[in-house]
Amino acid sequence: MTETIPSKELRKPTILSRIVRRIILAIYKFQGWKIDTRLPKDIKKYVLAGAPHSSNWDFVFFVGATAVEGVKPNFMGKHTLFKGILRNFMLDMGGVPVDKTRSNSAVEQVADEFAARDHLALVMAAEGTRKSDGKWRSGFYHIAQAAKVPIVLAWVSWEDRVMGFSEPMIPSGNYGEDLAKIAAWLRSKRPDYPRYKVLEAQARAIIEGKTEG
Predict the structure, then answer these.
(1) Residue-wise over 74-104: b if at least 16 C-beta within 10 A, else e?
(2) What three-state secondary structure class fits 113?
(3) Could you tell me if 189 and 195 are in contact, meaning their C-beta atoms sit under 8 angstroms apart?
(4) How far apart, in Å, are the Cα atoms of 65 and each of 19, 92, 156?
(5) What is the rounded distance in angstroms from the CA atom of residue 93 to the CA atom of residue 46?
(6) What per-residue confidence (pLDDT) applies to 10?
């Protein structure tokens, strides 16, 4: 089982984490970003799957947007980053330590974290890397299933400085069909965006049995 954050651990956030968050929020506001559709307010735990992941700044602006929405986002990080002087900073920034050397998988470790906490909004770049052509990796889906939490989709348009969020979606267990619904929602926001067309084709291929999820 991964290290969980004790609920009784009451301490002030580190000075560095407070400074970094203020800088992120200032950059977000300075860039003039707007939120098209807002985060659901009635859920406390969910996987926030975002796409496209086209810039190293993506997480910065998701942190800014969620801060405006009153949500502290979380992210997965290598467990070695949560040691020594970095530990409290990483935890304050929303980090969830994952130890890939343990016998239980990363999915199981993160599911344990969901079970241990009252609030957890786990931000994941569903495409995996910035070099993706638009296909999604299924880790976000397996984590949501294992933790029994909904998925909230996030989309972003750098050109227009706009981002938005979907209503929560409960994984049905049919990855291909759910991925098709995800692609349809994203394309409703940016119909001609190439990566979303690739995602739509990926979902169709999974449904037709031409590729595995």
Answers:
(1) bbbbebeebeeebebbbbbbbbbbbbeeeee
(2) helix
(3) no
(4) 17, 17, 11
(5) 17
(6) 61
Angle between helices 175-189 and 194-207 (to 10 degrees): 160
Which tokens hold the place of 51? 């796409």
155 forms beta bridges with 51, 164
What's the full length of the chain, in residues?
A: 213
Is residue 133's pLDDT more than 60? yes
pLDDT digits (tens, 9 = 90+) for 96-118: 999 988 888 999 999 999 999 99
CA distances (Å), 200 to each of 144, 150, 189, 192, in order? 21, 21, 14, 12
Return the biggest CA–CA distance within the chain. Answer: 52
- Tell me the C-alpha distance between 110 and 2, whole Å: 8
* pLDDT above 70 for 136: yes
Identify the band that residue 131 occupies on the pLDDT scale cut at 50, 70 and 90. confident
Query: Out of 8-12, 19-23, 56-60, which region has the weakest mean confidence (pLDDT)?
Result: 8-12
Residue with tokens 């949500």: 71
